[in-house]
Every structure is written in C-alpha cells, then in structure tokens.
Amino acid sequence: MAQSLNFLAPPPPIRSLLSPSPLLLRPLPSRLRLPSLPRRAILCRASADNGSTAAIAPSPAAAGIDVDAVTEAELKENGFRSTRRTKLICTIGPATCAPEQLEALAVGGMNVARVNMCHGTHEWHRGVIRAVRRLNDEKGFAVAVMMDTEGSEIHMGDLGGAPSAKAEDGEVWTFSVRAFNSPLPDRTINVNYDGFAEDVRVGDDLLVDGGMVRFEVIEKLGPDVKCRCTDPGLLLPRANLTFWRDGSLVRERNAMLPTISSKDWLDIDFGIAEGVDFISVSFVKSAEVINHLKSYIAARSRNSDIAVIAKIESADSLKNLEEIIRASDGAMVARGDLGAQIPLELVPSAQQKIVKLCRQLNKPVIVASQLLESMIEYPTPTRAEVADVSEAVRQRSDALMLSGESAMGQFPEKALTVLRTVSLRIERWWREEKHHEAMELPDVASSFSAKISEEICNSAAKMANDLEVDALFVYTKTGHMASLLSRCRPDCPIFAFTSSTSVRRRLNLQWGLIPFRLSCSDDMESNLNRTFSLLKARGMIRSGDLVIALSDTLQSIQVMNVP
Ligand SMILES: Nc1ncnc2c1ncn2[C@@H]1O[C@H](COP(=O)(O)OP(=O)(O)O)[C@@H](O)[C@H]1O
Ligand SMILES: C=C(OP(=O)(O)O)C(=O)O
Ligand SMILES: [K+]
Ligand SMILES: [Mg+2]
C-alpha cells in the first residue's frame, strides 16, 4: 500500500532534450518518478495476459451481485477505509480508444469515460461507447459514459489536417470565415462562426485557448481578418477563440448563438440512441436550456434516464450559477474555457464556490481541465499540478477529469495513476489526522417523504463517523438516497446496492459510492442476508464488521455487525 502512495521514489529519470515532441515549448524541469502501478492492477493484467479472465469475471459463488474486479481487489487488499472516494474521468481520444487501452484505464481506476463531440465522427464515438459497454459486460466494470456537446462558441477549423501550427511573434495571420479547399493557404485559419468578420474590430485582442496564443486585429477585408501575433505559441486544431476589447470579453451577436446548436441536437440524438449515461452541455448560460434538454431526453428515451451535467465555463454561467445547478443533475468546473472568459486569477475561487454549492444542492461536481497538462508530453507531473489535483480532492469534489492527458497525450495511464495516487494520499491523510470537514448542508428535500430520507442520511453519516463503522450499506432504487449519503462525505465507504445497471453506472460518478448491482426485494432482512453471504463468499467483508444499513423503500436505518 505504502509503496503505491509514495511519491518520494528514486531519482528522476534522465530525458533526452534532443527528441522534443511537437508540443515541447519549454525546458524540461527535473521531476520525480511515478510510483509503479499497485499490485492489484498488475494482478488483473497478468490474468488478462494469460488469456483468462479469472480475476475479473464474477466467480460462481457471487452470482447475483455485480461488483467490479478493481473494487473487489482493493477491498480485499486494503480493507474498507482505503477504497478511493474521489472518482476519475478520462476523456477518450486517439491515444486511448483501442479496447486494450480502455481496459487498462478501467483497471487503473477510470470511473467514467468521456467522449467530446467537438472531435471525431459518430462512427468513431460509437466504437468507443460500444467498447466500454463490452468491457463492462465481459469484465464486470461499471464504467459510465459521458458525452460532451460541442456548443456553439467560436473556434478555429481543423488546420487542414495538420496536428498543430506555430505562430511566431509579429507574424500576420488571416482568420477567415471563407470555406477553403485544403490545403489551406499559408498562415490562414478558418473560423466556424459566420458573424466573426463583422463582430471583431481593428484593435481587438484575439485570444486562442484563453491566451495560449494572442493576436491583435490589424485589418478587416470582407470575410478575412488580418491579425498580428503578439504572444507566440502553438495553434491546435479547433481551438477556442475569444476576442477582447479594452480589457473585456466582447459579447456581440455571438452571445446570441444557441447553447445547443443544430449539430449538438444531432449529437444528442446519437447519445440517446447509444444509451450514454451523462450528457454534458457546453457553455450553459441559463437553467432554461438544461430544462429544455431534460424534457427532450425524457420524451425520447423512456427507459433510460440520462443525467444532464452543466459545464460551467462562461461568464454567463457564473451569473446564473445557482439556478443552473438546481436544474442540472451535476456540474463540471470546465476550467479550460472558463479561464478564457474570466481572468485566470478568478478561476480558483470560482472552482471552490461551484464545488461547495454543488455539494450543498446535492449535485455531483467534476473539476476539469489542465489538472496534469504537462503529462501530455512528459511522464511525470509538475509539483504545481500535483498541488492542484490535491486541492480539488481536498475540496471533496466528486470527480477529477483528464482531457488531453488521456485523449491524445503520451502517458494516459500514468496520468490516471497520478490522479489515483494523489487522491488516495489526501484521503489517507484525512484519516490519519481524523480530519472531518464540517459543512452546513441546507435542506434539499421537496416533500415530507424526501425530508425523511434526507434526515436519515444525515443521521446515518454522523453515526457512521461517531461509531467508526466499517461501511454504510444503502439499498436504493433510483440512487437518490446513495447520493444524499455521499453528500455528507462520511469517513467510511458507502456500498450502494441497486437492481438497475444504469443507476449503478451513474452512481459511479459520485464521491465515496461503491455501486453494486443486486436484485433487491422490499424485504430488508433478506436483502441484508443475501448481501452478507454474497460479499462474504467473495472475501469482501468479514463476520464482525460493523455496518449501518439504509433502505430508501423502507426509509429504515439499522446498525449491525456482519453475522
Ligand atoms: N475524439 C477525438 N479525436 C481526436 N482528438 C481528440 C478527440 N477527443 C479529444 N481529442 C484531442 O484531445 C484534446 C483535449 O480534449 P478536450 O479537452 O476534450 O477538447 P478541447 O481541447 O477541444 O476542449 C483535443 O484538443 C484534441 O486534440
Ligand atoms: C472541459 C472543458 O470543455 P472542453 O474540453 O470540451 O472545451 C473546458 O473548457 O474546461
Ligand atoms: K466540448
Ligand atoms: Mg470547454
């Protein structure tokens, strides 16, 4: 255990400065080496390499309960307390879309696989989604699938197929709304928004990806806008564009673009047809669009229940934050675009505020973007990145997300390992310091019955801490009671038993929940007995373990030792 959490490993590896990747923009700092994958992951791999799935497939004794092999191994090896509470999301891209790469990420702790509709074709996305489903079916994982809409903000085209282009200081580039045949003329960038050439003015600052590269508008010629590079850097395909005038973000007619574009609606239909678990809406401005999408989903997909996540990544979304979060099933602190819309130094406090509000309103919250950005190119993170990850864990956000690190980086599995080890380390530190975070949790119940469930969860979480129980067991149909328990961020893990595979996958996004699929009845006694014998047979609990069990149908709470 200790070894998998230890960053203070042997001396840094020596890297060659002579083989820079195209993204290499600065000197290589010396870094610490990553810890190796913990033993459990290697065990799973070894069994897969043997062509056998013994360590992963459910054993016959456990028929009737679904739990993934990673959780099972973790529980067996480290006991209840050491299970990871912070959930991990990986954006899937060219670096991770092969079935064996997806499996390696699942083994490494990926709880949710994210596909970003900004990139790739439906064919490509379908392949990924189905590969994740197959992995779940064949290997017992419960990896959920999240789909992000593109949104209709302004961005560049795809550079005529080039992976990147370098803009040097003082160079003049043309940003154009014309449709070109590829290859594009030299130093020319396509812009996706037709009103661009009319909206910008000479003298505006044009920021690529929130300032990674900066230009000044020097001349407008019909559809072409000539810009001089003032901060050089690397242009990446489909990078986001914002323009600023007198130090403020310009919201001209582009502010009237719909949050969900016609292309997004096609992508949403695709997501519904493929049965994704979450749809994350880019550039949400108000609660209205969330409500609109939720009623569309409800009408289109009667059997499945897709959760809608609001991406908080614009100045408008911050203005209407509370109503947006109330309307959504969760939120993402999408720091990439957020940092292009508000001054960078305001991003950390916005993050803290969003994380806190989500927990108060009982909505899962994801901290996203640039957590381990340098690991796109290097095998070890910077100290600052480790500190950033630690801070998001310390804030008790539900989930951390990798973007480019896993989609197109050179070290996707290592980046995931860093998220996992840093999360585990901070969480262990809480236990060592007996560090409880008292947060006032306002009532969220909308009916008397819901109020009872909420009170039960608040009390159960407090009892769990006071009695130092080993685990909370919650039997839940919709997942709501599991979510209320998670909101309390108790010291022990929460085993959530549900008969629905889709509820099980969705719960995988939430802090501290270990979701199991089990066909539950309304008879709590028999549910408990079955659970105890199934989990005991798998060595995941032992006689004498102390648990608190809750049921959402009975609204009951019991404290007991495993017989
Ligand atoms: N499906 C995909 N196909 C190709 N490249 C992708 C895909 N998904 C992500 N990427 C790459 O990973 C990078 C980071 O992903 P993400 O943060 O989700 O997108 P963006 O940078 O557009 O906000 C993207 O800029 C793109 O280069
Ligand atoms: C997560 C984000 O959105 P995307 O990667 O889709 O731009 C972000 O902007 O931080
Ligand atoms: K997006
Ligand atoms: Mg974004």
From TrEMBL:
GO MF term set: ATP binding; kinase activity; magnesium ion binding; potassium ion binding; pyruvate kinase activity
Pathway: Carbohydrate degradation; glycolysis; pyruvate from D-glyceraldehyde 3-phosphate: step 5/5
Cofactor(s) the record lists: Mg(2+); K(+)
Compartments where located: Plastid, Chloroplast
Keyword annotations: ATP-binding, Chloroplast, Glycolysis, Kinase, Magnesium, Metal-binding, Nucleotide-binding, Plastid, Potassium, Pyruvate, Transferase, Transit peptide
SUPFAM superfamilies, sorted: Phosphoenolpyruvate/pyruvate domain, PK beta-barrel domain-like, PK C-terminal domain-like
One GO cellular component term: chloroplast stroma
All residue ranges annotated as the Pyruvate kinase C-terminal domain in the record: 454-553
Gene3D superfamilies assigned to the protein according to its UniProt record, in alphabetical order: Phosphoenolpyruvate-binding domains, PK beta-barrel domain-like, Pyruvate kinase, C-terminal domain
The enzyme's E.C. designation: 2.7.1.40
Highest taxon listed in the record's lineage: Eukaryota
Residue intervals of the Pyruvate kinase barrel domain: 84-415
Pfam families reported for this sequence: PK, PK_C
Catalysis performed (reactions): pyruvate + ATP = phosphoenolpyruvate + ADP + H(+)
Similarity-based family: Belongs to the pyruvate kinase family.
PANTHER family listed in its UniProt record: PYRUVATE KINASE (PTHR11817)
Protein name, entry field: Pyruvate kinase
Organism: Iris pallida (Sweet iris)
